[in-house]
């Protein structure tokens, strides 16, 4: 089974040397957590168990977890591990969604089906829900998601975009309910440090131990541990960032209206619009050296991340205003 694996952040497709592009094809916070100078040991020594424990403690506190998060090299690393947690069988993915889930499962021998209703996940040996969903922002309350757990073999909940809306997370229920739930969390998207490659898998003791075994002894780097500990403990920065992202998402919606686009959905980190002709809309933006994201399953949907600098907002404003001309 071949599943197309296309992603945002693919500027190499269009960029030529010396060209100045504004990349809005991802859902990464464009104003990242300010990284201070790191201690020499973060670079020069292998990560210690005490440093890793400090990172997991910071993540547990930030996420409201009653289980120990397993640090990994981004949520993508967790997606690659999930198919190895059980013998291959029937997997169902609530879609359309991030295509790496289906691709990773298929490569490990799972029979993968995409369904369009959460109820259709019942009966699967492994079920995947991305909450909130990428790219349309569809979301379900934690109680509804956890009600599904007794009706599937393994329930995987990808919460890569939940940080701006922590009330949607099922993490606070882990360790107190069904033991067949695995939650994936991204660090790099909300904190704007995707290149650091840090994320977490959260589950009950048995599944968490298996994930840690499959990840190996040094699943994350010393710099990732050092930065992650600082950023996850900085609640003031997180609160201010949630407020700013909400305001910026609303500003982006207003700009999209200049082009006559309508909102499909999204999260405070990205917005998806119905454009009528997504390829034409992408090409028009590309003429202004702005890169966006379109999808193989929709001729109309286009996704935009948030600009960071005021100059970038003005650049996008001019490009969108010109869409109707």
From TrEMBL:
Swiss-Prot/TrEMBL GO biological process terms: cobalamin biosynthetic process
Residue ranges occupied by any Aminotransferase class I/classII large domain in the UniProt entry: 50-319
Keyword Ion transport attributed: no
InterPro entries: Aminotransferase_I/II_large (IPR004839), CobD (IPR005860), NHTrfase_class1_PyrdxlP-BS (IPR004838), PyrdxlP-dep_Trfase (IPR015424), PyrdxlP-dep_Trfase_major (IPR015421), PyrdxlP-dep_Trfase_small (IPR015422)
Keywords for the protein's UniProt record, in alphabetical order: Cobalamin biosynthesis, Lyase, Pyridoxal phosphate
E.C. numbers: 4.1.1.81
Enzyme class per UniProt: lyase
Keyword Lyase: yes
Catalysed reaction equations from the record: O-phospho-L-threonine + H(+) = (R)-1-aminopropan-2-yl phosphate + CO2
Protein name as annotated: threonine-phosphate decarboxylase
Source species taxonomy: Bacteria, Pseudomonadati, Pseudomonadota, Alphaproteobacteria, Rhodobacterales
């Amino acid at each position: 089974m071949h599943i197309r694996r296309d992603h945002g952040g693919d500027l190499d497709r269009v960029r030529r040397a010396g060209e100045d592009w504004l990349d809005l094809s991802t859902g990464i916070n464009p104003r990242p957590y300010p990284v201070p100078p790191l201690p020499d040991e973060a670079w020069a020594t292998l990560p210690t168990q005490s440093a890793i424990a400090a990172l997991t403690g910071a993540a547990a506190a930030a996420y409201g977890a009653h289980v120990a998060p397993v640090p990994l090299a981004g949520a993508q690393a967790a997606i690659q591990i999930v198919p190895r947690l059980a013998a291959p069988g029937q997997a169902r993915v609530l879609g359309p969604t991030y295509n790496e889930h289906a691709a990773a499962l298929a490569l490990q021998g799972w029979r993968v089906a995409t369904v369009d209703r959460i109820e259709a996940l019942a009966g699967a040996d492994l079920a995947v829900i991305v909450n909130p969903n990428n790219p349309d922002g569809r979301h379900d309350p934690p109680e509804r998601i956890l009600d599904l757990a007794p009706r599937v073999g393994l329930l995987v909940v990808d919460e890569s975009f939940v940080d701006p809306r922590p009330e949607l997370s099922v993490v606070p229920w882990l360790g107190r309910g069904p033991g067949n739930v695995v939650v994936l969390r991204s660090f790099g998207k909300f904190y704007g440090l995707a290149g650091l490659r840090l994320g977490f898998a959260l589950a009950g003791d048995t599944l968490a131990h298996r994930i840690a075994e499959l990840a190996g002894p040094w699943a994350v780097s010393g710099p990732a541990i050092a930065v992650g500990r600082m950023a996850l403990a900085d609640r003031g920065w997180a609160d201010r960032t949630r407020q700013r992202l909400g305001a910026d998402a609303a500003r982006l919606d207003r700009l999209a209206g200049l082009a006559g686009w309508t909102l499909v959905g999204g999260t405070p980190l990205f917005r998806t619009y119905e454009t009528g002709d997504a390829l034409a809309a992408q090409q028009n933006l590309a003429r202004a050296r702005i890169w966006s994201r379109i999808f193989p399953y929709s001729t109309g949907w286009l996704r935009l991340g948030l600009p960071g600098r005021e100059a970038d907002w003005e650049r996008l404003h001019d490009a969108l205003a010109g869409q109707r001309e």
